[in-house]
Structure formats: structure tokens, C-alpha cells
Amino acid sequence: MTVTTPRIRLTPEQRREQLLDLGVQMLATRSLEELSIDRLAEAAGISRGLLYHYFGGKQGFYEAVVQRAADDLYAQTEPPAEGDQLERLLASMAAYVDYVAANRAGYSSLVRAAAGGNEALRAIYDTTFAALAERFFAEDPAGELLPDTPANRTLVRAWQAMAEELTLTWCADPTVMSRDELLRVLAGSLPAMIEIL
């Protein structure tokens, strides 16, 4: 038996926000390909046509949901204001691991879609990871931990790719190491890479 949410009159902006929130919630437990427009419209108590009205179609909705999820990732991984650089990096990486673990299906599908040639999703992915990388240099303007050099920027990007792969692998099989061990590897490997230069 299907339960339909009663229709509630919302402003266009409130309705758009509601749809994005529902899309992000659904994306946490299913891949982008499994995100059902019909199920989402039913949960919101609107017609499929109204959802298309707000986003211009299925692809526009998917892109908006992925952008919202990317914005959430960026916000949730903001390092704390207090602590030394390594403590702040560890806190940020803990938030990243927790975000990926809680949203594994959707996060994995975004990584696949970005790698698979979807230009719009690739742009969201690249912009988000560039912004995350930029944090390292903005948070450390004196360059105490991470001097802003082309070589260090390249290392940060490579480290991000490693951190993403390691986190996704750990989420698929958390028995390979503890969460604390994973975080020590993630937070300790960037300074170690920088030190080698």
C-alpha cells in the first residue's frame, strides 16, 4: 500500500528546497540512477510535471541534488576554528569519512558519473574538490604545514584521490581497519607526502 503525502501549499522557493532536501535524503541510500522521480514526487505530494517545472527535467533535478549534496559535504567537513593544523585536518577528515559512510550509495554514484563523462556532474565534482583543496592553503596562509606551491597543490589533489578511494574501500569493508586507523592514515599521509619534497 502506497502512502501519499498530503499536498501542502508552499512558495516556489520552499517547494524547490523541499524537493532538493528529499532528493538528497534519497541519494544517501541509493545511487543517482536509482533516484526515482515518481517516488520523489509522491513523497513531496506533487505531480511529476511540477517537479520538472522547477528543474527543467530529470537531468536538471539530478544536477541540483548533486550540487546540494556537494554543498553539504563542503559544509560538514569544515575544519574547527580551534586547534593546530594537524588536529583540524583530523577533524575535517573524520567529518569526511562520516559523510561518505552515511551517503555511500549516492557518493559512489557521483564518483562514477563524474568519471563516466557526465560533464555537468564532473564540473560539480571538480569544483567541490578544488574548493576542499583550497581550504588547505586558505587555512594555513603562513604555509606552516603546507606552503602554497605548485608541487604541493599537485600533492594535495593526488592525496584527495587517495583519501576518496581509501574511504570508499573502507566503507565497503570496514573490517580491513578500524575507523581510527583509517583516520590516522588519512590525516598523517598528507604531511608525510609534503615532507618528502
TrEMBL record:
It holds the Pfam family TetR_C_46. Residues 36-55 bind DNA. It comes from the Bacteria. InterPro entries: DesT_TetR_C, Homeodomain-like_sf, HTH-type_TetR-like_transc_reg, HTH_TetR, Tet_transcr_reg_TetR-rel_C_sf. Residues 13-73 form the HTH tetR-type domain. SUPFAM superfamilies: Homeodomain-like, Tetracyclin repressor-like, C-terminal domain. GO terms for molecular function: DNA-binding transcription factor activity; transcription cis-regulatory region binding. The keyword DNA-binding applies. It comes from Nocardioides thalensis. The keyword Amino-acid biosynthesis does not apply. PROSITE patterns: HTH_TETR_2. Keywords: DNA-binding, Transcription, Transcription regulation. This is AcrR family transcriptional regulator.
